[in-house]
Amino acid sequence: MIDEAALAVAGIAAGAFAGLVPGIHANTIAFLVVALPVQKGPGFAFFIVSMAIVNSIVDCVPSILLGATSDENANIMLPGHEMLMDGNGLEAVALSSLGAAFAVAIAVALSPFFFSVTQNYASTIPGITPVLVAAAFVAMVACEKNKVSAISLGLLCGCLGIIASEKTDNFIFALITGFFGITGLVEAILSKAKLPPQKEFTEVKIEAGTALLATAASGFTAIFPGIGPTQATTAIRGVFSGIGKKGHLVLTGAMNTGNIVFSLLMLFALGKGRSGAAVAIQSFATVDFGILLAMLATAVMGAGVGLAIAMHSAKIVLAFAEKINYGTLSAVVLVFMLSLVWIFSGPLGMLACITAACLALFGISSKVHRSQCMAFLLFPTMIFYLGI
Questions:
Q1: Which of 7, 37, 54, 234 has a 20 to 30 A CA-CA distance from 179?
Q2: Quick check: 368 and 150 in contact, CB under 8 A?
């Protein structure tokens, strides 16, 4: 029991490290642990669970405060950065983190319903996925005033996503950096933006409906491959356009963390790993009911600790950022992110990244919401399920 607790604590440390350092992914650490030439028992499953949960919560800090986004947090960057520049960066982190923590509790509460769905309907849901994804794209376009530019941007981004997925390693990271990272960082450098004084907040209001919707949708994404939290978040925003910036942050935080919990439930229900964490856990243990309960308890514990780490680290980052030139900080982050694109995706990835940045600039100049750029994930998903 002591060994399991120690491994869970080690997972918290690893998750915080992976979440706060851009370019370090929790899945990378998970598979490094799997590859270690040492005897590994079921206790290592608790390391993976606590690491994945803490990472999914803490990951919002660099995305919101530094503009260094990850695959999972592309949706969080724009509204988070807007709140940061309004002096509400700490509240933005709190909204995302609390949404994630609520998602863990809601996912555990919904587990009986989830087991029923996986047993009875898992085989039929993939058949309607292309229709749902297409409907989400139509809804996103319908919310735009300049519909011609929105359709053009969506089609171009979708085509880029299809091409990059076939030609480029780690294409999601490369394109997300281009669509959402480069443009914001360059804008901060050119405008010589200064980080405004950050406001303290006394309370954060979380809309329970948004957290519940996101958590339920994250269960949907866990049932089958191809649809991830990022695609589902984009689809929800397309259908429910009135969520707003704060609701968006809650939505993204809840979606990412809820998906991890549901992937654990999926592992128990059907014996299938639909996330990096779940696949790693399969290497350590056969998930019976007792281990599932222990993993869920670890997830709840990780959510509480992850929330505390996110808020504390956000205060430290903001205190540091307020003391230096924000344009200089943005330039350092820009060089760092482009270096990661080159390392992980190579020359083709860099080309895809720059192309994505140009498309994002087209969207900005056309006054189209940059969320249309997420078509780069929606189109490949439709093609996957259509079998084209």
A1: 54
A2: yes
